[in-house]
Design brief:
This protein is an alpha+beta fold and about 800 residues long. The protein contains eight helices and 40 strands. α1 runs parallel beside α2. The longest helix is centred in the last third of the chain and has 34 residues. It is flat and about 140 Å long. The relative contact order is 0.08.
Length: about 800
């Protein structure tokens, strides 16, 4: 996931697919426009409240067309030229593209212009995409040499003729890295052409350096002359977009189509001071990959190498919103290019920082190539600087701390966001020469913690210092605009009439909440003093402090309460994610009575988390209610189940009674039945009547929970027991026999069904049963459940 968990992975290429590089070249790094801060125009941080500005750049792209290149490498060079020409962050930048080889007197000169100087606005990008296609490898009959001096002179001419000298000038030289002018008459007689070529190359490089032209060579082919390429990179202008080593021109090798994208993105980022972060290992669609955009980014481009133009990409921001590919959404501006090509780029101005999700979908037959994701971005550093004590006396030691943050005052949590940062600082004032300040973030000396974004150093105020003091520092990092801040103070001539000590706890609050600190004040003078309190180095409205002003009585020593309040939710916008934000400002106390003398500057750390939802506040109540409801439902279900069990006809003993009230031989034991009803009929009613189970029979029985059973028949339902038979036909009635098998027990140990224990059927005369004591009795239903039970019966 890019830089999530600190993992930096290398994108896998697609070896042997040089043609894909040509198809995918038209979209990558497309048209990042000049950025604007997310809170621009909303009273941003003092000293850093101007619109962010990244300069336009003039580019020239020289493409080797010599016959020494293979056809595949020529295709990759053309792809690279398109990527470079379409990759700048400013629509005010310009580019020219030309091919070169050597003038060997065969009808073509050394230089082959294909794209005139073009502004990289929307129309210009369309033009560049077309004209780069005119580049072609020269035939043997047209010359096979490689003339670096003429290529460099052409690039210098294109970059300086009629251009703004204040804009950076960058020449990309795409070649196999071998100077070859042995067949060019422009370099004198054959015996001296190699030496003359070297001399003219040296002169061309000097001219480039004098005209401020950086040269970034890219070597193609199986064995580019790396030493020659490094010489070319070192011979041009050495000052890049910043003074950092990462922006110094250097040579690179592109190993064919498999790594053209990632290599060019890294080189382009270095040449124009952009940040380049690769995503996770490429995955075949359908897949979702994650890429992180830094909170420092003000403009970025998510580049997706699809491989197949049929792959469709959707983008989801860190807040979970599926973002559009054009227009404005939640204060970010979007523009997509290359959606119908093999590589596309989503440009985002004011991107929401955090983890973005890139979803790749493709129809069947278009899922064989992995999709790779990366991000290019530029941003702005913010910072806050404090000097304590702010009004020292000569000879005192002061501590200066510069804290890295966003322009709005949000803390930067990940040191990788500002890796490569350089801090330059000094202490100046009246009466002494500037003193260098070494500010470090190594956790040593006065620096409390390493890699926490706070750079600290100390200095002693010279004995001859008087009047104004200023501690200033400049932060510089590749891809980030430099930020300069100053903490101002005054050399105190002696003991101050008013001294203060401010104590503000670290707070964790929701929007609109507040916390209280203390301000100890001591006025040793005989006059009242008015103190002014303010929050600095934060976007206006995020935090406020009260009282903003207080007056001390002559000779007063007291402890005053001060309250810091967090602004409402809307001032944080989309940045207030679920994990909250860390604000890092400073509270300053100034004695307005004593010439606005700064008495104290105290750091202010507040973590702001979203207002808890109703669930977060009352989850315990919801959980308790859910448990009670679940228990009630369980009880109802248990009751229903019990009622059903109490009606289950299983085990009922059914007996037929003749017209004289005598039990007929045999008995029938009911099974479980259908929906608590056991259905049956009477077979051979006029010969040898017996009960048999029948689905949808004319009769059905179920238990009565109050004892006995219920008979269902045509005409209604009737109670049924051993003592109250129910007539079925003119000569037959039905009665219950007594269950003699062991009944099922409930969990309490009580007998179930009708509450009777095992026993025998007995009639009123005490006669014994004529049925056998074991085995199935005549007339029982062999298919009925429990029909194999043993019964001892007598007639009633």
């Amino acid at each position: 996931m890019g830089r999530v968990n600190g993992v930096r992975e290398t994108r896998r290429g697609r070896a042997g697919r040089a043609s894909l590089a040509v198809l995918g070249a038209t979209a990558v790094l497309l048209s990042l426009s000049a950025p604007g801060g997310r809170y621009a125009g909303h009273g941003a941080v003092p000293v850093a409240d101007s619109e962010p500005a990244f300069p336009a750049v003039n580019y020239a792209v020289a493409v080797d067309e010599s016959a020494s290149l293979s056809d595949a490498d020529m295709d990759v060079e053309k792809a690279a030229a398109k990527r470079i020409a379409l990759g700048d962050v400013s629509s005010s930048s310009h580019v020219t593209v030309f091919g070169f080889a050597a003038d060997e007197g065969k009808g073509r000169g050394a230089v082959d212009p294909v794209c005139r100087r073009t502004t990289l606005d929307a129309a210009g990008r369309e033009t560049i995409g077309d004209c780069v296609g005119k580049l072609r490898k020269r035939k043997e009959s047209e010359g096979t040499g490689t003339d670096f001096p003429n290529a460099i002179w052409q690039g210098v001419h294109d970059l300086t003729e009629g251009t703004d000298p204040a804009q950076p000038r960058v020449l990309f030289l795409l070649t196999d890295g071998k100077l070859d002018v042995k067949d060019s008459k422009n370099y004198g007689d054959p015996a001296h052409r190699v030496a003359e070529g070297e001399r003219k190359l040296t002169q061309a490089l000097k001219d480039a350096a004098a005209q401020g032209v950086q040269i970034w060579p890219l070597g193609f082919g199986p064995a580019p002359d790396h030493k020659q390429l490094e010489r070319i990179a070192a011979g041009g202008y050495q000052k890049g977009c910043t003074v950092l080593p990462s922006s110094k021109p250097r040579a690179s090798k592109v190993s064919g189509a498999k790594d053209v994208g990632s290599t060019l993105e890294r080189i382009f980022a270095a040449a124009h001071c952009m940040r380049h972060d690769e995503g996770p290992e490429p995955q075949r669609p359908p897949s979702t990959q994650e890429i992180t955009i830094s909170p420092l980014a003000t403009v970025g481009s998510i580049v997706v190498d699809k491989g197949d133009p049929e792959v469709q990409i959707t983008y989801t921001d860190p807040a979970g919103h599926k973002v559009p590919t054009s227009g404005t959404f939640h204060r970010s501006t979007f523009e997509l290019a290359g959606d119908n090509d093999t590589v596309e780029a989503l440009k985002i101005v004011d991107p929401l920082p955090g983890v973005w999700k890139v979803r790749a979908e493709a129809p069947e037959g278009h899922r064989s190539l992995p999709v790779a994701v990366s991000v290019l971005w530029q941003g702005e550093l913010g910072s806050a600087i404090v000097m304590n004590p702010p009004s020292p006396r000569a000879g005192d030691r002061v501590t200066v701390t510069m804290r890295v943050q966003t322009r709005e005052g949000f803390q930067i949590k990940d040191p990788r966001d500002y890796e490569g940062l350089r801090v330059r600082s000094e202490l100046t004032g009246d009466g002494f020469d500037p003193l260098p300040l070494a500010l470090t973030d190594d956790g040593k000396g006065e620096d409390e913690k390493a890699s926490d974004g706070s750079f600290t150093g100390t200095a002693e105020i010279p004995a001859n210092a008087r009047g104004a003091l200023k501690a200033s520092a400049t932060l510089t990092a590749a891809g980030l605009s430099a930020d300069t801040r100053a903490a101002r103070g005054t050399v105190a001539p002696g003991e101050l009439p008013v001294t203060t000590a401010l104590d503000l706890p670290v707070a964790d609050l929701h929007p609109g909440a507040e916390f209280t600190g203390t301000l100890d004040v001591h006025n040793t003078s005989g006059a009242p003093h008015t103190l002014k309190l303010s929050v600095n180095d934060l976007k206006a409205g995020l935090l406020s402090i009260t009282p903003a002003e207080l007056t001390l009585k002559p000779g007063e020593s007291a402890t005053r309460k001060v309250t810091v309040k967090v602004g409402p939710t809307d001032v944080f916008g989309d940045r207030l994610a679920d994990d909250g934000l860390s604000l890092a400002g400073n509270v300053t106390v100034i004695d307005t009575t004593d010439g606005n003398l700064t008495l104290v500057t105290s750091p202010l750390a507040v973590r702001v988390t979203p207002e808890p939802s109703v669930w977060d506040k009352y989850w315990w109540a919801f959980l308790t209610a859910a448990v009670l409801i679940a228990a009630a439902v369980a009880a109802v279900l248990a009751l229903i189940q019990l009622r059903r069990a109490r009606r289950d006809p299983h085990g009922l003993v059914l007996r037929l009674v003749d017209e004289h009230g005598e039990f007929l031989p045999g008995e029938h034991v009911a099974g479980h039945g259908h929906k608590q009803w056991y259905e049956f009929g009477v077979a051979e009613a006029h010969l040898s009547p017996r009960i048999e189970r029948r689905a949808h029979g004319p009769y059905a029985v179920q238990r009565n929970p109050n004892g006995g059973a219920v008979l269902r028949r045509k005409g209604g339902r009737s109670p049924l027991s051993a003592t109250t038979p129910v007539q079925l036909t003119d000569g037959l009635s039905l009665a219950l026999g007594e269950e003699t098998h062991k009944p099922h027990k409930s969990r309490t140990g009580r007998t179930n069904r009708n509450g009777r224990n095992a026993g025998t059927f007995r009639n009123g005369q005490g006669g014994s049963s004529s049925a056998g004591a074991t085995g199935p009795t005549p007339g029982t239903d062999p298919g009925g459940q429990g029909s194999s039970s043993t019964y001892d019966q007598t007639y009633l």
